[in-house]
From TrEMBL:
The chain crosses the membrane at residues 157-178. The lineage of its organism: Eukaryota, Viridiplantae, Streptophyta, Embryophyta, Tracheophyta. Its main location: membrane. This is TETRASPANIN-8-RELATED. GO terms for cellular component: membrane. Keywords: Membrane, Signal, Transmembrane, Transmembrane helix. Pfam families: Tetraspanin (PF00335). It is a multi-pass membrane protein. Belongs to the tetraspanin (TM4SF) family. InterPro entries: TET_plant, Tetraspanin/Peripherin. The keyword Ribosomal protein does not apply.
Length: 195
C-alpha cells in the first residue's frame, strides 16, 4: 500500500507539471480562443508531434465527425455570428483556419484562401476545404487536442489527490492499529509467561 501511495503521488505530480503550461489565446471580439502548440509542455508536444501518434488521433477526430457536426450546427451562420460562437478547442483548432490567415468565409468548414495573404503561420498552408483534411494537419488542431487533454488530466489529478488523501488516512489507521495490536500482544505474552 505504501508503494501504491508513492506511485499515485508521483503520477499526480507528473500530471500537474505536464499540464501546467498552455492555454488558448483570447481574441478580441471573438467568442472562442486560438490555440498554439508551442504554448504547451514539451512532453505533450512530442506526443502529438509524432507522426504515427498524430495519424491515429487525426483518424479518430475525423471518425468522430468533430468538424461535420460543427458544420451542421453552424451551417446558417454568417461569419460575424460564427465569430461570436463559443467554440470548443477542437472546433476552433481543427475545423476552421486561424484568424491570422485572413481567409474569406464561405461556410463553417469552407474558406477561400486569399492570394495576397503573407502570413508566416504554417497552419494557413496546411488548411484545405476537404472534409478529411481541413485543419487536421495544423498545429492549432494539435494544440486544441492538448487543451482538451490538459483539462481532463487536471480533473484526474484532482481525483487522485482525493484518493491519495483517503489512502494515506487508511494506511495511517492501519499502521496504528497494527502497532497497537502488536504492543497488546507483547504485553499479553509477557503477562502470560510471568504470572
Amino acid at each position: 500500500m505504501f508503494f501504491l501511495i508513492i506511485l499515485l503521488f508521483c503520477f499526480t505530480i507528473f500530471a500537474f507539471v505536464v499540464t501546467n503550461k498552455g492555454a488558448g489565446q483570447v481574441l478580441s471580439g471573438k467568442g472562442y480562443k486560438e490555440y498554439k502548440l508551442g504554448d504547451y509542455s514539451n512532453w505533450l508536444q512530442k506526443r502529438v508531434g509524432n507522426g504515427k501518434n498524430w495519424g491515429k488521433i487525426k483518424s479518430c477526430l475525423i471518425d468522430a465527425k468533430v468538424c461535420s457536426d460543427f458544420n451542421q450546427k453552424f451551417m446558417n451562420d454568417t461569419v460575424e455570428v460564427l465569430y461570436t460562437r463559443h467554440l470548443s478547442a477542437l472546433q476552433a483548432g481543427c475545423c476552421k483556419p486561424s484568424d491570422s490567415c485572413g481567409f474569406i468565409y464561405k461556410s463553417p468548414i469552407n474558406w477561400e484562401k486569399t492570394p495576397t495573404n503573407s502570413t508566416s503561420d504554417p497552419d494557413c498552408n496546411a488548411w484545405d476545404n476537404q472534409t478529411d483534411v481541413l485543419c487536421f494537419n495544423c498545429n492549432s488542431c494539435k494544440a486544441g487536442l492538448l487543451d482538451n487533454l490538459k483539462r481532463d488530466w487536471k480533473k484526474v489529478a484532482v481525483i487522485n489527490i482525493v484518493f491519495l488523501v483517503f489512502l494515506i488516512i487508511v494506511y495511517s489507521v492501519g499502521c496504528c492499529a497494527f502497532r497497537n495490536n502488536r504492543r497488546d500482544n507483547n504485553a499479553y505474552s509477557a503477562g502470560w509467561k510471568h504470572p
